[in-house]
Description:
This protein is an alpha+beta fold.
Amino acid sequence: MKNSSTRTMTAKRIAVAVAAVCATMSAPSFAAGTDMKALMDLLLKKGVITQQEYDQNIQAAAENEAFKEKRLADDVKNLNNIAIKNKDTGSVMKSGLGMQSTDGETTVQLTGRVHMDYRSYAGDTTGAFTTDTQTNALEVRRARLGVRGQLFKDWKYEIVGNYGAADSATAPSGMSSTSTEIDVGYIDYAKNPAASVRLGKFKMPFSLEQLTSSNNIDFMERSVTNQTEGEFVPAKETGAMIFGSPVSGMSYGFALSRGRTSTSTKTATFDKPDYIGRVTANIPKVFLGRDDFVLHTGIGLSKGEIAGLTTSALGRNEIRTSAAFYTANAALTGPVNRTRIGYEGAVAYKAFKVQGEMFNYQYDGVNASNEIDSNYIQAVYNLTGENHNYSNSAGTFGWIKPNVAFDKGGMGAIQVGIRASSLKAPDVTPKLTTSFATNDYSSITYGVTWFLNDNARLMLNYTEIDYGGIGVGATNSRFLKERAMMMRGQLSF
């Protein structure tokens, strides 16, 4: 009896094993459970297995099927999470080509810009001013390439090269820059957005127009004050800065600057740093929490010591034909205390924006003093309805993003604008010598800009300059007034 019972048990196990193998080899997988149950039903009907054994095997098969489905679901979920986490790794980022680590804390992003300009000139050469030697220009106004990003989340960096070539009468390069140099190069410790630290060469915290990227300014050239970078307006200089946004809508920056290194500004004898600061607020954001319009206010201050101020004419105009339209009455003997103050304001509501700044410059030398006043006011309107992009953390305006890009079947964004600017030096007597420098400069610029997409725009500007009745420029090229039609094709990323 024992041997018979043993043989019966063995036969049952073999039958169950055969049934399991057959079910496992069945395809597709959803049919395996059905085949297994059919075999179990047959074995139960033939009396090969008991009802209890039948129930146990059916339950075991169901549990195995549920386990497999859960395992498959968990694997799919894990793979999906990995894909989401690494979706930007090595991919095109929001504003350029770049890569980032799997944890997102280290990034490197390629940046660049090319501004290609054409300028056509005309000038009033009445009376004694009979020579017009200005030549229409076609040039690469800017060509820059660089990288920016972050290291381990809290450290930011940017380094950009400005590429140019030396010009000569026999071999013009068609480049506005005459040398290849580092445009900016700095590192930030930015763990706390309310108080970050920057070291290197960067734009000093002064002037809304100057701090607006050349990619985003409303006209091809900045106003007359911002043309004389480093002298009238602190620009890209070497130094250290603490900056941040303590609350949304407010920004500040305080810097120590080495200033320009030419002998007219800093020398071994007069080597003290410039102290530069700027504070801004977007009133509706700070006090009302509103984002539907911008009321920007700000003030900038710069104080420092320079070696002196020569009688050489200073000041580049807005059409880039002259880098000299006024001179001091007398050379200022150093040390010369230079104080620069800027007041800025802007209102932006939907497609409309008005922006302006007033500047005052005081030079106090050992032997004399000079005071200069300058300002600009401009208005722009986006005909296609786009809003103006304002940064509440930096206190600056950015790119106009088209509602529908031109390459996506839309019109892109079209903007029109007008700007008036002036520079007056009441302490300076107009020069009637060969330099023919003036102390009364004013200009008006009209502009049309077409934003094709998020990276390209075309610009057309017309500028007329009035030198207050005094000619300006080199001995063989003097004008009472100048006019220029300027065009630009721009690509940036």
